[in-house]
Design a protein that fits this description.
alpha/beta; Rossmann fold; six-stranded parallel sheet; about 45% helix; about 15% strand
């Protein structure tokens, strides 16, 4: 079986890495399973490139399509044109896509039009918010997927409700947690930890990148100011996406917010593990904090990962002043739900995926 594995943005590689490791393990045991790793170049931080593949212990991509940034339409079109040539030159039995970025949707469409079957890892996630580009990508990708691998049983139920064949849906667990579990003993303390005299539980960690939070200057300023007032004596470490840094240049950051450049994966997870709490609008970080038992404020009105709330340590705070103040009050008074780890988030999801592929 020949697979083409697609990654387009940094989080995709955290999901692809354990699948690569599981394939390599199966091949050593005699499995007839081969892959070609394609990086679309949708998003990449050149400052981190020399560390990235070493951190995840995966090979460099077989091809980088180098599409770069752009509007959703232009970026999607560039990915489709470039990947069509790639797939024609290197046919596969299946194209495996992960997550919900533009590359996920674009490569799935190209594969189907070239009569190649599509596998979607992290299928069935839904926020039901069509203002989120990622939600559109999820819906369109799942509409043409042939084989679905889900992180939770609930994701499978959502797929069935929209007409997917139950026989093609497989609950395998969370590949992001595979990467987390595999690297817990490899975490690296970033230089800023000593530089700012941090210690376990002495700081908050924040990430913001959703357009609804960072694109409008006055809303971003309101949110930043409100959060800085609530954390009191604890600083907020803020590894800022380049998109967000551009917006922040127009603001005077409060002294207790320490903005830094994006961090390597092993450094970032070190900060998550040792934070007092995490403030984020990211999907993946909701999952990582759930596994690590760290309180998480999700600064959004919805989430495609409800299990992090019903089972884990995440709470959907939103961005209203009232909800944020109430959330900090509960946290400071020890009323935050520490949560548990959802089923099949133990680090073996990729092994289950490869086992199912070999059964085919």
């Amino acid at each position: 079986m020949n697979l083409t594995l697609i990654a387009g943005a940094r989080p995709n590689f955290m999901k692809i890495a354990p699948i690569i490791h599981a394939i390599n393990k199966a091949k050593k045991n005699g499995a007839n399973l081969h892959y070609r790793l394609i990086h679309t170049g949708q998003h990449y931080d050149e400052k981190l490139s020399k560390y990235f593949f070493d951190d995840l212990n995966i090979p460099h991509p077989d091809a980088n399509l180098g599409v770069g940034s752009g509007s959703h339409a232009s970026q999607t079109a560039k990915i489709m044109v470039a990947f069509e040539e790639e797939l024609k030159s290197n046919p596969a039995d299946y194209v495996l896509v992960v997550g919900d970025v533009n590359s996920t949707m674009a490569c799935a469409i190209v594969a189907k039009k070239l009569q190649t079957k599509v596998i979607h890892v992290e299928a069935g996630l839904r926020s039901y918010d069509l203002d989120m580009p990622e939600e559109i990508n999820r819906m369109l990708t799942d509409a043409i997927t042939d084989l679905f691998f889900t992180t939770t049983p609930e994701a499978g139920y959502k797929l069935i409700q929209t007409g997917s064949n139950p026989d093609h849906i497989h609950f395998v667990g969370n590949v992001m947690m595979d990467t987390l579990v595999a690297n817990l003993d490899r975490l690296q303390e970033p230089p800023l930890y000593k530089e700012h005299q941090l210690s376990k539980g002495s700081y908050y960690l924040m990430t913001l990148h959703r357009p609804s939070n960072v694109d409008e200057e006055q809303e971003l300023k309101r949110l930043i100011t409100l959060l800085s007032e609530q954390v009191e004596e604890k600083p907020i470490i803020f590894p800022a996406h380049p998109r967000t840094q551009k917006q922040l240049k127009a603001l005077d950051l409060p002294q207790n917010i320490i903005m830094v450049d994006p961090l390597r994966y092993l450094e970032f997870i070190f900060l998550v593990k040792n934070a007092f709490a995490v403030l984020t609008d990211s999907g993946g970080i909701q999952e990582e904090t759930t596994y690590l038992g760290i309180p998480c404020f999700t600064l959004r009105e919805n989430t495609e990962r409800p299990e992090t709330i019903t089972v884990g340590s995440n709470e959907l705070i939103g961005t209203s002043t009232e909800n944020i103040i109430a959330g900090f009050h509960r946290l400071k008074n020890g009323q935050w739900e520490r949560g548990q780890i959802p089923m099949y988030w133990e680090g073996k999801a990729a092994e289950r995926i490869v086992k199912k592929l070999l059964e085919l």
